Structure formats: C-alpha cells, structure tokens
Amino acid sequence: MIQLVIFDMDGVLTDSEQLINAAVIAMFRELGTIAQPDDFLPFVGTGEDRYIGGVAEKYQLSLNLAEAKRRTYEIYLQLVPEKLTAFPGAVELVKCCRKAGLLIAVASSADAVKVNANLKQIGLPPETWHAVISGEDVVRKKPAPDIFLTAAKRLGIAPQDCAVIEDAVNGIEAAKAAGMRCIGVAQTFPAAKLARADVVRLRIQDVLLSDLNGKQA
C-alpha cells in the first residue's frame, strides 16, 4: 500500500521547463553561443550541472560551470514572479494526497535555490511537504535512483511503498530503478516516450488517487 507520494517538480508541479530553458539559452547567448531549445531535451531531469554541461559539450564550449549556473539562476529568478505558474490540478493533487493521509515529498534534481523559489511561487512552500530533496542532496542524479531513495529513507518508508509522479524519461528510469511505482504525466514528453511508467496520464490534473495504488479507474 502506498504511503509516500514523491513529486518531481519541473514539468510536474510547475511549467518551469520553458523558463529554465529560456534562462540557459540567454546565458549561452551572452557567451556567444546560440543554443536551440531541443538541445536540452536529453538532459531534462538530470539537474542543472548536466543540463548546462551537456549542451556546452555539444557546442565544444569550455565554461566555468559554477559561474554559468549562477548567471542562469540570476536570469531564471527574474522570470519566476511574472511567468511561473503551477500546472492546473497540481496543487489540488498535493492537497488531496495529504488529506488522504499520505506522506508527500518533492524530489527534484534542481538546486535548492530553484526548488525553493518555485515552490513558494506556486503556493506550496517547503514547509508544506514532509520532505524536500534537491539535487544538492545526492551525488548521482537521475536516471540514478538516489534522489527518490533519499526521500524514502528520510521519511522511513520502504521503496515499494512509494509512488513517484514524473514527466521525464530520466525521472521514470530513476523511479523504476528505485523499485517504486511510477505515474508519468505527458506534460514535457509525448506519452509514448513515458511507456516505462506504470500509468501514463496526459496531465497531472488527470492523475487519480487510485493510480497511486495501482487500482485502475
């Protein structure tokens, strides 16, 4: 029986994928490199180090990763107040899970500065959650299972009693490697690419509590 629901953040709770993409592209532009939005797709869900570094490798660009991230977040945080919103149904699902007596956690490969800004902006600040895990809490990022296992361990829940809600291929791989049930939401990638998830819904507002426990509606 599922006791803990672990939510990815970017692309699941918030529409932040486009914003971080725009911020990184702007950062690269300042360095004289014109990156394309699709360049970043293989690195979605892997954390900003790989998200930025993978595209830098593609363009054979040598950069100071720490400084590149600092500037990216600077641009990103300017966009958040006016442009970041929760996906329809996301806040409601989080509250529904909590009302049902389930533990709730966020596990995002993003750095804490971005996680905290996003959660506050959409009205689900860190204190809303039983646990918030950021990319800085683990060495190995998705598709490694570490971030989800860390969330489960922090709350004392066995992996088989956890359900993960993910939008990215790398995140689904991580959830399955952790031995957890996974619900995919096709808000970033087409549903066909999320086939390894136990259940795929088009949007987070379509996810049912019965999906979490494997009882098909």
How would you explain this protein's 3D organization?
The chain is α/β, with parallel strands linked by helices. Helix content is 41%, strand content 12%. It has helices at residues 16-30, 48-58, 65-83, 90-99, 112-121, 146-155, 169-177, 209-213, and strands at 4-7, 103-107, 131-133, 162-166, 181-185, 199-201. Helix 3 (65-83) packs parallel to helix 5. The chain is globular.
Structure described in brief:
The chain contains eight helices and six strands, in the order βααααβαβαβαββα.
Order of helices and strands: EHHHHEHEHEHEEH
- Largest sheet composition: 6 strands, parallel
**Strand line-up across the major sheet:** 3-2-1-4-5-6
Provide the helix percentage.
40-55%
Low-confidence stretches: none
Give the helix tally. 8
Query: Which topology of the largest domain does CATH recognise?
Result: Rossmann fold
Secondary-structure content class:
alpha/beta
What's the SSE blueprint?
Blueprint (H helix, E strand, L loop, with lengths): L3 E4 L8 H15 L17 H11 L6 H19 L6 H10 L3 E5 L4 H10 L9 E3 L12 H10 L6 E5 L2 H9 L3 E5 L13 E3 L7 H5 L4
Parallel strand pairs: 1-2, 1-4, 2-3, 4-5, 5-6
Helix pairs in contact: 1-3, 2-3, 3-5
